[in-house]
Structures are given as C-alpha cells and as structure tokens.
Amino acid sequence: MKKLSIFSLALFFFIAGAQPLLAAVRSWELDKAHTNFYFTVDHIYSKIRGHFNEYSGEIKFDPKNLAESKFSFKIDTASVDTNVAKRDKHLQSADFFDTGKYPQMTFESTKITDVGNGLYEVLGKFTVKGVEYQLLLPLTLAGIKDHPAAKGKEVIGFNGMVTIDRLAYKVGDGKLFDLGVVGKDVEILVSIEALADK
Amino acid sequence: MTVNNASDNTGKTMKQRVSRFFLIGFAVVGIACTLTIPFVYESQTLWYKVGVDKTFLRAGQLLGLLALISLIVQIFFGSRGKVLEETFGVAALMAWHRANGILLCCLVSLHIALVLVPEGIANLPIGVKHWPEMVGGVLFLVIFSQVISSFFRQQLGFIYKQWRMVHRALGYLALCLAAVHVLFVADSFAQGVPRIALLVMLVTVFALIAVIKASILIRKIKDRR
Question: Mind telling me how many Å the CA of A180 is from chain B's nearest CA?
Fold first, then answer.
C-alpha cells in the first residue's frame, strides 16, 4: 500500500513536472478561411494574382521558445487558382507545376530567428517539384489575442512576403519568360490566422 | 411517251447533278471556312504553347471542328430529307451515315488525345470550373455509345423501333452538347465572327431538321389518306 502511494506520488510529480515542458510550445490550428498563400507574377505588363485552395499546415509557436517552434505547410499544386480555368490548367501542366508528378509543395521550418519588431525569419526546407531548397521566409507576428468572435479561443496572426525566382525552382523552363510573356519573379504573400484553445 | 420519259429522266438527272454540285460545294466551302478558324481566330491557349505542343493543340482544334461538321452532316444523313434522298438515294445516305459515324468517333477520339496531350494526360480538366471540357467528355460518351449501339444493336438485344427513337434523341442531344462545348470551351468562339457563324449555323441546322421532319410527317399523313 505504501509502495503504491510512493509510486502514485512519483507519477504525479513526473506528470506535473512535464506539463510546463509540453505546454511550452503551443500548437495552433490553421484557420483555413483566413489563411492563404497568394502569389503575383508579371504577365507582359500586368500583374496576375493567384492563390491555392487546398493546403494544410501545422504551427507550433511560442515567442519565448523559438527553438521548439515550428511551421510546416503542404500545398496542393492542383488547387492553384487564378480565376481563369484554362490558365489554372496550364499552370498545373508540365510547363509549370506538373501536378500529375508533383502534387504537393511543402515547407518545413528548420530555424526561427527573432529579428525584432515582431519580425521572425523562418528558415526552412522548401520542396518544389520533388527538389528541396532552402528558403528564408520572413514572417511578421501580427499579434496574439482572444478571438473576438469565438469564445474560449485565441488567435495568432502572421504575414510575410518573399520574392522568388520561379525558374530557379524549375517552375517553367524559361520559354515563356524568354518570349516576354510570363515573368520569372514571383511575389509570395503568406497570410496566416491560426487558432488555439485558451 | 418514251421521248417524254427520256426528257423527264434527263431533267431529273440534271436536277440531281445540280443539287449534288451545290450540296457538295456548300459542304466543301463550309469545311474550308471552318478550318481557318484556329488560324485566323487563334485561341489564347495556343499563344502559350510552343513547338510540338502547339502543333498538337492546333491539330486537335482542327479535328474537333471537323468532328462538329461531321456531326452536323451525320444528322442530315440520318434525317434523310427529300432533297438529299432524291440527290443521293436512300441506300447511299444510310451507308454514309454508318461510315460517318465511325469517322466521327475517330475524329472525336483524336481531338481529345491531341488537345489533352499538351497539358498532360495526368492533368485532365475535371471539376466544376472545367465544365465546358466535361460537357465535351459527356458528348464523347454519347457519340461512342451511339456508334457501339448502332453496330452491335442486335447483339445487344435492342428492339429496332425503341433503339431508333433513343438513337435520334441522342443524336439531337449530341448536337446541343457540341454547340455548348464549342461555344464555351474555346475563346475563339467567345465573340465575333466564329461565334455568330456557329450560332447562325446551329439555328439553320435545327430549322432545316424541323422542316425535314415536318415534311416527312406531312408525307406520311398524305400517304395514309
């Protein structure tokens, strides 16, 4: 009986001790209605905007524990949407994303650095068309607060913009760029809202 | 009397020749004009394709347009208007109807293959936002089922009268689906001459079919009396 009490007590202290460690990095669930990965690319003179309708992600973030914090996203390339069905189909073809062979683009953070003023440099592995690249994604923490519309929830927000050379990622072989039709620099806007229980 | 018969036959033959000349000439001019569309009114999809992909896509568009003409001709062969019957004969019309059915199926199959290859076979246009392409897919199934059910009607155990009724209805449905598919799938037909020409042609075809059907009905009523 005494042995059992000592074991119970030890178990209690072990769980209680582990609790702050587990709670240290909070998991946030993407609010998919208010999150997206937008892009802008030049077309001769105009700017074409698009986004992805299907994606998933995982955010573990605590400003006080960046070592344990993590961002990971999976984007379905077939869900590319530029508001013109035929253009979307072309973007899905081997000329661009080749969605049949490479259905997903992924980003997984490896290091998060606080550079001040709410700006975090998120370094990660960005996998496009099966090839892994290093990408530095600057994300600005917009804030953390009680969700104004959902009781018992907190909301966190991030916004970030990065410009990449799509040809460096083999998204296109350059023929449309050489023709002066589609630009090679793609401006990416990452806008995130994620929720967590209080 | 013999002289009169001979002159009647000569007149009939002359009339047939003139009719043939105009009908075949009209078809040739129609085909030629239609085939200029992918060149004169190039679709934007073609702008962004180069090399073999561009050739395939253009060839696919040309075959699609030929398939549309083949479908229209097929309906006229099948409806057997008085002018066509007198000009070419019922046996020839029916033989052409059968042969054209196979040709139509081949044209549609090649059209699909050549249009899809440049975008990738694994990248099929499926989903609500690609509804005009999906209509084309349904059209292919209708045409394919029409050809199969016609050639293997007896083996499939279809009763002739019922099969003919369904065959006719599906034939008209195919033309409607083709019209929707062409008008909405290709931006060449989004406005201007091709759109107006196609709409005028469709209205004319349906009007002619209505006239042919009405005259057949009148003929039947007269025969009964």
Answer: 11
CATH number at residue A175: 2.40.128.110
Measured distance CA(B11)–CA(B19) in Å, rounded: 12
- Set of chain A residues whose Cβ sits within 8 Å of the Cβ of B125: 85, 89
Q: Give the residue on A whose Cα is nearest the Cα of B43.
A: A86
Distance from CA of A121 to the nearest CA of B (A): 36
- Residue A19 located in a structural domain: no
CA distance B193 to B121: 32
Q: Look at residue A13 and tell me if it is in a domain.
A: no
Question: pLDDT averaged over consecutive 10-residue blocks of chain A (198 residues)?
Answer: 52 47 78 95 97 96 95 96 94 94 96 96 97 97 94 95 96 93 96 95
Contacts of B56 in chain A (CB under 8 A): none
Interface predicted TM-score (ipTM) of this complex, two decimals = 0.74
Number of domains, chain A? 1
Q: Tell me the residue range of the domain where A40 lies.
A: 25-197
The DSSP letter of residue A31 is -
Tell if the CB–CB gap between A95 and B45 is shorter than 8 Å: no
Euclidean distance between CA atoms A86 and B111, whole angstroms? 17
